[in-house]
Each structure stands twice: as structure tokens, then as C-alpha cells.
Amino acid sequence: MDNWKKIGKLLALFFALLLGFAACRSKEGNEGTKIKIQVLKGLYSYGPEIKSFTDCRDEGREYWVADSSKNLELAYNNLGFEKPYIPVYIEVECHIVKSDTNSIYGDYDSTMVVTKVLKISKDIPDGPCNQ
């Protein structure tokens, strides 16, 4: 009977080590896919069917917008527009992901996931955004 207890303890130790190894491997995999947060400045248009961003610095590149901060759409609505899709100037912290080609926003190569709104304004500054 003592041998069975030893075998049971060894099996329990083996499975604990196996789980620990799997957890370590999982963390290594997550570090390899770190999200790159960046600040983008440009024009944001919002309405019932379109949530788009045009980057003023990157040759007018357009992105679909996903508002994970839950503040961008609210701030846009608080500006009091009577009609949708009027562009506003924004500065946001975000990261870029590849768009799902099977979704409504599949026409956009990439999706800008907003994590923090830094600035939103009806006044579009002079420069590449105001052309």
C-alpha cells in the first residue's frame, strides 16, 4: 500500500509540474503578441452605419473605429450635431488590428481600437486634416 501512495504522490507532482509548464508557456505566448498602443490624430466620422477615422499624417489612411473606451461616441454625441457623419478632429490612444473581412467593416484593411480619448473638437486644425 505504501508503494501506491508514493505512485499517487509522484503522479500528482508530475501533473502539477505539467500544469506549471503549460502556464509558463501560455505567458510566453502572450508576451510575443503585445499590443502596441499609439497616439493617432485625425478626423473621426460617426453615424448609424459608419464609424471611421482618417489619419491626417498617414496619407489619409482610413480605419474602422471600435470604441473600447466607450467615451468616443459619447463625446461625439455631446458635441450636439443635428446630422450624423460630420467629421471632428480627435486625438486618441489606440491600437490597430486587422479588420474581419466577413463583417460590415470588412472594406477597411484595419480597425483602430480606441482605448482613451485625449481630445475631440469641432475645430479642425490647419494642415493635412483641413484640406
From TrEMBL:
Domain of life: Bacteria
Matches recorded under InterPro entries: NlpE_C, NlpE_C_sf
Matches recorded under PROSITE patterns: PROKAR_LIPOPROTEIN
Ranges annotated as spanning the membrane: none
Annotated signal sequence range: none
Boundaries of every NlpE C-terminal OB domain copy: 38-123
Record protein name field: NlpE C-terminal OB domain-containing protein
Species of origin: Pedobacter montanisoli
